[in-house]
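Me: I keep going back and forth on a fold encoding question. No explanation is needed for now; the record alone will do.

Assistant:
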Amino acid sequence: MFQTRNILLFFIILISLKVRAEEIDTIKSIRVDTIISKNVGLTKKIKSVLKSDSTNLKTFKPDPIKSVWMGAIIPGYGQILNKKYWKLPIIYGGFLGCAYAIAWNSGTYNTYLTAYQDIISNNPSQTSYLQIIPKGYTLADLGGISGFTNILNTKQQIFHRYRDLSIIVTVGLYALTLVDAYVDAQLYDFDISPDLSMHIQPTLLQNTSGSPNTFAMQCSFRLK
C-alpha cells in the first residue's frame, strides 16, 4: 500500500513537472514571437521612413515662380531655394564689386564736378580745383585756367559715364540672378548626363525609281 502511494505520488510529481515545463515553453514562445513581431514591425517602420525620405529626395522640384519672386526680394535667395549654394559667393561677390565701382566712380565724379563748378564760378573763395592738381604740376603747366577747365569738364563727364555704367551693370547682374533662378528651377530634374549611345542596325532602303530595294547599315545616336 505504501509503495502504491509512493508510485502515485511520483507520477503526480512527474505530470506536474511536465505541465510546468510546457507552461514555461509556452511563455518563452509567446515572448519570442512578441519580440520578433516587434522587430519586424520596427524594421517595416524604418524601411517605410527611409523609403519616404528617398521618395521626397527624388521628387524634390523647386517652384520657378517662387524662386524668381524670392530672388527679386532677396538677391541670391532663388539660388538657395534651388539648392545651388555654390553660386552664392559668385553672386554676392559680383554685387560687392558693383557697389564698390558705383561708390568710387560717384565719389570721383562729384570731386571733378565740384572742381569744375568752382573754376567756372570765378569766385576766389571756391578753390577746390587747386586741391586736385597733380603733385609736381602747377596751374600754368596744365594750360592755365582755360586749359584746366577743359580737363575738369572732360574728367567729370568720363566719371559720370562710368558711374552710370556701373549702375547698369548692377541692374544687369540683378536681372541675371532672376533668370538663372528661373532656368535652374525649370531644368532642375532635366537629365544632362553625357551618356551618348550609338546604335548600328541593318535597314532596307526603298527605291522609288523602279530599281530593286537595297540593304544598308543605319547608324543612330541617342542622348540619354
In short: The beta strands are 196-205, 214-223. The chain has a mean pLDDT of 77. DSSP finds five helices and two strands in the chain.
